[in-house]
Amino acid sequence: MPDVMPGQDFDVIVIGGGINGLVCAVLLAQARKRVVLLEAQRRMGGMCRTDEIAPGFKVSTLAHLVGPLDAEVMKQLRLTKTGLQFSARQIGAVALSPDGRHIILGEDLRHTAQSLSAHEANDAKAWAAYATTTRRLAQQLHAWTQKAAWPPATGEGARAPLLANHWRRAGIDQAAATQLDLSIAELLERTFRGHLVKGALALDAVMGNSFAPTAAGSALLPVMRRAFEPRGTNGIMHPAGGAGALISVLEKAADVAGVRVRTGARADQFLFENGRIAGVHLANGEAVYAPHVISSLSPVQTYLKMGAERDLPFGFKRRLRGYRMEGTVAKVNLALAGLPTFKALDKRHLKERLLVCLSLEELMKAHAAFEQGQIASDLALEATLPSIHDPGLVRPGGHVMSINAMYVPHRFGAGDPEAARKELVSAVVSRLRQMAPDLPDMVVGVDVYLPQDLAAIGDGAGCHWHGGDLSSDQLGVLRPAFWGAAPAPVVPGLHLCGAGTHPGGGVTGTNGRLAAEAVLRAMQVGA
Amino acid sequence: MAVAAPATARLDAICIGASHEVLFAASCLAASGKSIALLNASTPDTANAPLAPCLVDVEAVEHLGLVSHGLRFGAAPPVVAVAQDRALALWPEIDATQAGLAALSQHDAATYQGFVQRVSRLSGLAANGASGFVPNLQMAGPGSDSLFTDTAYLRGASLARVLGETFSDPLLQGTLAQFALAGTGISPSLPGSARLLARQDVLALLGVPSGKRHVAGGKPALSLALEASLRHAAAAGLSRQVGVKAFVVERDGVQGVELADGTVLKAPHVIMSPDRDDSPDSQLSQFPDAPRLRAGASTARLLYTVAMPPAIRSVGAGLLTSGANVLLNPSIDRLVASHGAFVARRLLQDFCISLHVNPVHPAQSPMQWQVVVDIPFVPPETEEGPWSGARRQRLVAAVTKTIDAWAPGFELSLQSATLVRPSEPPGFLDQRRPASVMPLSGSAVEILPDLHHDGIHKPVRGLWVVEESLSAGAGHAGISVAEAIGAHARTRGRTHA
Amino acid sequence: MSDLSARSVRRSPLHLKTAEACVSDKWIRACGFTVPLVYTNEREECEALSARAGLADISARHCWRIDGPDAVAFLGFATTHDAALIEAGQTTRVLWCDDSGFVRGEGGLSRIGSRCFELTSVVDDFAWFADGAIGFDVSVSDWTGQRGGLALRGPNAEAILALAGFGASSGTDPVKGPTTSDAAEQGQILLLRAADGVELWMDAAGLGLVWDRLMRVGAGFGLQPIGAGVLSLDRIEAALPQPGVDWVPAQFALRQADLRVPLDLGVEPGLMRRFNGVEALLARRQGCGSKLVQLRSSKPIPLAEVIGKGGSAGHVTSAASSPATGRHLALAWIKDEFARPGAMLARPATSGALDIQIARLCHS
Q: What ipTM score was computed for the predicted complex, to two decimals?
């Protein structure tokens, strides 16, 4: 393309057109920076996309829900005004039970209490306390999720708000800090009696991570998710038209802000000048120059696979090697001829996330199989039926089901992906049959993504649902790895804005916003 | 044994079970002149009891005067690891360990002391100034607080990651991992497992001063001293071997127990251990706050009697019989694989073997040695079914063969072999337990032990469940309970919330 | 394998030769190897070194080989010295720093081919280099124990070298310095001229033959084997600090006060060049507040604190007394305000009077 020539054509290059890359690019462009956004695929979106999986059946093929969306991003990008609509908000969860004693885990305490006491009388009371504590802790952690893990080197908050002492200063009491340090398995064992509620809540907490629910510090996860939006005003949402609709709105915002968007432009190498980043070399041989490069790719891909590794401090490089970002989730999308019947489940609850995990033990076994490179017969699932509230996705009468399956190892199906996909679908369908016996007969179309398929769509290095395990050795200033000289970038001019940065994964846009703020600050001081 | 006090007599406390914590509590109460009943406190079978080294709270020992009842402190035994082509020994003296490591890896020998300091900081001892700790500033950077960063990292990371990043020798990595995980059922790849490095026995091995000491002769010796102490307090006459059927629950609290023979004993306090074997644990689940403990049945134990100590490659007989804990080819990868199989209720034949060698009654049979073998990650029951009959024999045979490969001639010198854990499937009586009642230790998953827990659970008024705290040493929990109940407080007061 | 309860002995490749010559049977551990502390007696060895010639086994070091197209780039980033400036057959003293700019190690970097280097050091930091090599087209391999070295020092050293056929001046030089990494692997001898003498590095297998040849030729020149004790004295006389003795590598440091930047060790790397830790050094631009100096006194100097006017001046890290010259020397960290050549210091009053003079600053 003749209009991208060598020279300082841009102030900033953003690599990757997923939500965080887009948010970051728009915010920088709004600050009057000249921004170019490079997306390797033919279209934008990364893990957010809507595809037709069978004639007349559209679904968010990868990430199927969004949120809690960053409030600041919503405001600054005027997303609602640009046409973003949600077909469902405050999506809760239902723990499915084969015998119809489903547990409703939502905002409505009464429903939850009722459904819990069908299993164990004491659990209803326990839930009230559990939900209150989670909300209280989420409020206290809110500020932490909204700011950079590293504050500016000078001025306000120059001391590092590390996870440990940040809690103390945020006024979190000892008991609460102790609770956040527990494993989710232990917290649930202490709190609840019923197997189903423990299994479902544990699955919901560790979803996407490669560790077992017994990992220390995993009790933080439900709190952290909630902490993005402690009041739960919007909660987890489904954009009308699927996740791809959110991207279309962001693309519009990028266009308005003046971001130059290039698709089909795969960045394969960074360019350096005097030890500082100077631009990006594209797979087609072209070079794009800018003094700042922001990557929404994974930390490992960014730092170790694109030429920056030669300028990386050895100690940082060592720690980065231990960064866990192996994919654990497979995605299965089903086109259904009708609405499957879940025994005794009220239709209004079909909009929630349907969790299939009957006990902690089952989840542990699934993890054990995962560690051996296999999938368990009883996979843990998170399923949604978006067509319930978004009928525009499907032809009349039809439905789509979108399913995340855990734990599926990265190397599963390395030899014969096609057979592995078949095995996975049959495992998922037979698992769902326990809950909705008529479901298998309704399947008219199938769409599968193994972790390795997700890796191919993403950057190739890992395919982690959260851009890296959300364990406490990979959070805050330790995400992706402790860098003693922070907040200066490890490689001058090279920044990260993907899920592999603080505050972690999820379709929130917060990572993109924090990166944009950091880069603007760096530009001010001329770094 | 004499008959128990009459059912009508007023008791101050009922102690159930033969665990050390319960015996500590009983001794302490008896010494203070409280009237107690001791149920099911069978004299531990010294030959079959675990002879592994036992760390004891020095204050607790002093309080009960156990030294005058025959308890002796001993040196902390080393941990020895053997691989195909090399071996290493870890001693509580850092320089001795470093000297040995130097032959394997200079880097690891030099890093060792810094590692010990990081672990000591992790354990929190350093924060109290107990070990004159100075922060290792390797991770220091402008404006950063390295102490918090590194401790946060150590608390969140897995053993595999921490050891892999710190040491270069895989044998050393495997040794520390297996020792730190002993008895827990936790995978070394689990985030957070690195905090197990702050266990009291690991600290003792690393030479971090902690106010705990090893008992010479291990737990059997401790039991003998505790019994002597009980006899001294004239409480032995209150001991009875009888099953406990149920708790007596009155006014929202436990007020006593009902025995298998129908007798009812009443007391304002009941103290018990959480062991499955000697307590009415199925009754516990009626209390909403009953402790749900770690599943805790992840380690198999075999006892061998042999005519001579096994001749393990590169481990001399002197070292072996000094109480060293020998690990055969420890490796993190194998631990991870065994753990995966364990969760899936399968058994990996590639055992991670840990063994101790002890003389059997040196006075009576000088030609006999006992080999205590612990194997982590053996499921309490396999997919094929519970551990019984032929399955047990197969397990013993497989383990024997593995040891024989490391110690040629071991099988020939064998006189007997017993599988202590996993135990035989429950007998007839146990099978009649109502199915709806979850056993106490029936937690579905192995949970990372809380190193800071004091080992005392109080699920309901009047009932105390005590277990050994992983950070405080044997005796701490038992004595704390006795004091809470009203035994004479020690000079240095302890508080129990 | 020996019993673990006994200490294991790791032998230098020259062990059979040195054991034969070590009549004192006094040994010391160095870098995991057991080497002679003294062969005959210190006075004799000292005299040989200062008046005639001495031969020492310096195999007790870690030796890593860095080989590959990116060797120059990799070593240039890993160490404080620009590896491109080293010519084949040359050796240079280099330091390497951690991410925070604190010194992790020091060693001799020799170029043995256009894209092949050998780094020898008493600090075991192989994993650091191996891990750091990610992204560079180099292989880093550990040759410790498989390569060995001899140090030939003293006034007669060059003559012995020439007569034995290893001298660069003899014209018949069989190994002026291999130019390819292949040549290095073919058992050739690498001749390294350092400030304090000549070092010969070669594959361990050939070490014994070279030792014999030098000893035979050197007999007429009064050549004697010298042990670790006199080598250490020689080092203190030359004011060369030793890692682990005079300063602590950052990765092993237990106190912040022990951390050193290159400047403290007398090395001023060009901060315009990019190497590991340079950002931190640019931000810091100052040393630890003390300088390493050589001290001289009329009596043996204890490894203890020394005082100057107005209080503590620093502490002694290594000391030696020469039986040949009767001089008492030491290396010490002395605060900047006291660290001037010729300045007088003292021992604390409680330890008895002793006048100590600063002889010189190390590497000044």
A: 0.84
